[in-house]
Amino acid sequence: MKSSIKWVDNVQFVAETGSGHALVIDGAPEYGGRNTGARPMELVLAGAASCTAFDVVLMLKKSRQNFTSLHVDADAVRAETDPKVFTAIKLTFRVAGKSLDPAAVERAVKLSKEKYCSATAMLGKTAEITTEIVISEA
What we know:
The protein is an alpha+beta fold. The chain contains 3 helices and 6 strands; from the N terminus they run βββαββααβ. It has helices spanning about 40-60, 100-115, 120-125, and strands at about 5-10, 10-15, 20-25, 65-80, 85-95, 130-135. Strands 1-2-3 form a 3-stranded antiparallel sheet, with no helix packed on it. It has a 3-stranded mixed sheet with strand order 4-5-6, covered by helices on one side. Helix 1 (about 40-60) packs across helix 2 (about 100-115). The longest helix has 23 residues, at about 40-60. The chain is elongated and about 50 Å long. The protein starts with a strand and ends with a strand. The relative contact order is 0.15.
């Protein structure tokens, strides 16, 4: 896996992923940024949330759950001193569908957290990761 980061100006960068996609990364104005892109640590958190969402979607499909939406909210707390790693992450999974089996949804979230999600496995070295599941009929 590869990524290339090109400095634009101040604390703004353009990242290009190995799969050929680009995105703008920028810092907060108090650090010289112009708020033109996501912050680096926001991307780390979004990456973890999307990694686990990816796993859960695949497992729900495999278990033939009739879900119509999946939304993961990620809330993190960072250390107060450098390096300001994540110390706590709460992932809230909101799953909607018809006649969903709560046990299947819980199993998918648990397997993602404990076995499959590389991003949460790495972040779990510094952060306590907790999950919440909200299931609704759609």
